[in-house]
Amino acid sequence: MAKSFHFLYWPRDLEERVLELLELRKKAGLLLDNEQRPLIIWEPAPLSCNKKQLSSLFSALKVVDVCSPNHLELLRLFGEQPSSPFSRAQVEDLARRIFDSGVGPRRTGTVVIRAGEHGAMTLNPHDGICHWIPPYYGSSLSPAEGESQSSGVVDATGAGNAFLGAYAIGYLKTGDIKEAACYGSVAASFVLEQRGMPRRKATDGQEKWNDSDVHDRLNTYLEQVFMSTHRR
């Protein structure tokens, strides 16, 4: 039984598809209580991110658990231009406007903004606080030993999708929004390192991607992110 779904749709199409999905699960005998409702992650279709679609987006939020546009799509939804230099405050303000409109059937969902080289922002639904995590590459945090901070970035195609897929895994495993975003950042790092798919290799039962151990990279990154947050 699938525990999470990632949708990339226009708002009105999303509402229809999610309701269809939940109805199919109900017919299959899967009750829609808090324990068995799947995690619904919505990445708004890029072309739908404009002011004309804002009211439709607010309506669609009630059927999802996570809404995750990137920072440029977020700005277009509200008809704003990117500030120079990059402004976390601008992103946080707009993300909070989405959050305050109510995410999820019980308003317990969240907003995750993917901001490329600026990292990612999560909004905690319990206390309303915005948290930023750095990108795996290009941040002040040191990647795994022996790896460059920026030379590993080759092509960003697919990084956002990888982020959200790993976010789902991380959240279902830990129940922690910030830690789930760290899973997403590490997954995206493997996608950034080449054009096309990362290279998978298994030797003596040990799986590696691009010659790196995923768990080692994740654990190192988690330690650095949470230590950095604690110091601040």
UniProtKB/TrEMBL annotation:
InterPro entries named among the record's database cross-references: PfkB_dom (IPR011611), Ribokinase-like (IPR029056)
Membrane-spanning residues: none
One Pfam family linked to the record: PfkB
All residue ranges annotated as the Carbohydrate kinase PfkB domain in the record: 54-196
PANTHER family the record matches: PFKB FAMILY CARBOHYDRATE KINASE SUPERFAMILY (AFU_ORTHOLOGUE AFUA_4G09500) (PTHR47098:SF1), PROTEIN MAK32 (PTHR47098)
Stated name of the protein: Carbohydrate kinase PfkB domain-containing protein
UniProt organism field: Talaromyces atroroseus
Lineage: Eukaryota, Fungi, Dikarya, Ascomycota, Pezizomycotina
